[in-house]
Write a structure and sequence with these properties.
The protein is of the alpha/beta class. The protein has ten helices and eleven strands. A hairpin with a 2-residue loop joins strand 6 and strand 7. Helix 8 packs across helix 10 and helix 9 packs across helix 10. The radius of gyration is 19 Å and the shape is globular.
Length: 281
């Protein structure tokens, strides 16, 4: 089974320098693609000089996470694509456990266990649970990170069937700049009857040096999270759950907006603008 590794990159040369040796060791002999999202830190020059075996896809303009991943998957030759963030360092043996699940043709994606250490505290994540509450899908890190079921697979450390990914149209660019595109993708895959799995023996180390916050600011990314949480409901949910969403919406527009210092309200109007723009075009 052919494998491709796709890494979106935006001004992450320092991360590529640190983590590409680990990616190359873990994916020895497999295709590695870096999608450079119009970086200004000479990431492409570094790749060409230090990693000539890696394929480079260059965006002329900054397209952000979803579209960069989509372009990488489109160019990939592997039947299974591993999506890795540039701040993720895989263990050398992480690949085989992920790939083994794709013997089942109904598997859409498999997530890896992420280990992060922040302020001296080790956290294991990658397996997530969720429920509909107060008009929204809310999610959380599962306490048990050993089971195989998960609500979704993280976009920064997941294996996915290339054929099925493309059949769904990939990540939805409406979630730009970031957040919820992986939840949305897995939700749509599950509606097709495809399986979303978690593989606890496949381990990556996640340093959480995201370029989104650095480039756009913490407040804007928090508003983006609200915007995309709202868009997810409007796009995917129907029936009684959607009715409950609209019944709860006035509460959130008042009280959640107050608690978030206006960021929920900003996210709501951002989501509304996105929907109206799409309808108009």
């Amino acid at each position: 089974m052919k494998i491709s590794v796709v890494i979106p990159n935006y001004n992450g040369r320092h991360l590529l320098e640190k983590n590409l040796p680990f990616v190359a060791a873990a994916a020895k002999g497999e295709e590695i693609i870096v999608v450079d999202d119009a970086s200004a830190d000479k990431s492409v020059a570094f790749l060409k000089s230090s990693w000539p075996q890696i394929k480079i896809v260059q965006n002329k303009n900054n397209l952000r996470f979803a579209q960069s991943c989509n372009k990488g998957v489109e160019r990939a030759r592997g039947q299974v694509v591993i999506l890795l963030n540039s701040d993720v360092r895989p263990k050398k043996d992480f690949l085989a456990p992920l790939i083994s699940h794709f013997k089942d043709d109904q598997v859409f994606s498999v997530g890896a266990k992420e280990i992060s250490i922040e302020r001296g505290k080790k956290t294991e994540s990658g397996r997530a649970l969720g429920e509909f509450k107060k008009g929204f899908l809310v999610h959380w890190r599962a306490k048990d990170q050993t089971k195989k079921d998960t609500l979704w697979t993280f976009g920064g450390s997941m294996a996915v069937s290339r054929k099925k990914f493309l059949a769904l149209g990939g990540f939805d660019k409406d979630y730009k700049p970031a957040y919820w595109e992986d939840i949305d993708l897995c939700w749509r895959a599950r509606q097709k009857g495809w399986k979303i799995l978690f593989e606890p023996s496949s381990v990556v180390y996640h340093q959480h040096e995201t370029t989104n916050t650095k480039a756009l600011g913490k407040k804007k990314m928090e508003a983006a999270a609200f915007k995309n949480q709202i868009l997810f409901m409007w796009k995917n949910i129907r029936g009684i759950k959607l009715l409950k969403h609209f019944l709860w919406l006035p509460y959130h527009l008042i009280f959640t907006s107050i608690r978030s210092e206006g960021l929920f309200l900003l996210g709501f109007f951002w989501a509304l603008k996105s929907v109206l723009f799409k309808a108009k075009n």
